[in-house]
Amino acid sequence: MDVVLFIFPAGLIILGALIVVFAKNPVHNAMGLVMTLVSLAIIYITLNATFVAMVQMLVYAGAVMTLFLFVIMMIGVDKKEQDAESIKGQTFLISGSFLILISLLTYVAISSNFKWDLWFPAVDFAIEGTPQIIAGTLFTSWIFPFEIISLLLIVATAAAIALAYDIKKRKDNA
Amino acid sequence: MKYLFLVPIFIPFLTSIFLFINKKLFKNQITNFFTLNGSLLSFLVSGFVFFDLATNKFKDYSIKLFQWTNTPNISIGFTVDGLSATMLLLVTGLSLVIQVFSTSYMKDDEKYTSYFTYFNFFVFSMLLLVMSSNFLVMFMGWELVGLSSYLLISFWSNKESASKAGNKAFIINRIGDFGFLIGLMIVLNTFETFDFKTVMSLSSTISESTVTIICLFLLLGAFGKSAQFPLFSWLPDAMEGPTPASALIHAATMVTAGVFMLVRVSPLLQYSQTAKLLIAIFGLLTALIAAFSAINQYDIKKVLAYSTISQLGFMFIAIGSGAYVAAIFHLVTHAFFKALLFLGAGAVIHAMHHEQDIRKMGMLRKNMPVTALTMGIGTLAISGLPPLAGFWSKDEILASVFVNGGVYYVIWSLGLFAALLTAFYMGRHWLLIFAVDQGNNHDDVEEVSKSMTIPLLLLGLFSIFIGFINTPFFHGLEKVLHYTLENVYVTHLPKGVTLVVLAFVSIGAGFTGLTLAYLVFSFKVLDRINLDSKLFNTVIALVKDLSTNVLYLNKYGNLIFVKGSRVLSRNIAAVIDGIVIDGAVNSVAAIFNKTSKAASTTQTGQVRSYIAYFGLFLVLLIALFIVTPLVNV
Amino acid sequence: MLEVTTDWYLTLAAILFSIGFFGMMYRRNALIMFMCIELMLNAVNLTFIAASRHFGTIDGQVSVFFVLVVAAAEVVVGLAIIVSIFRKQISASVDVLNLSKG
Question: So what's the ipTM on this one?
Answer without folding.
Answer: 0.87
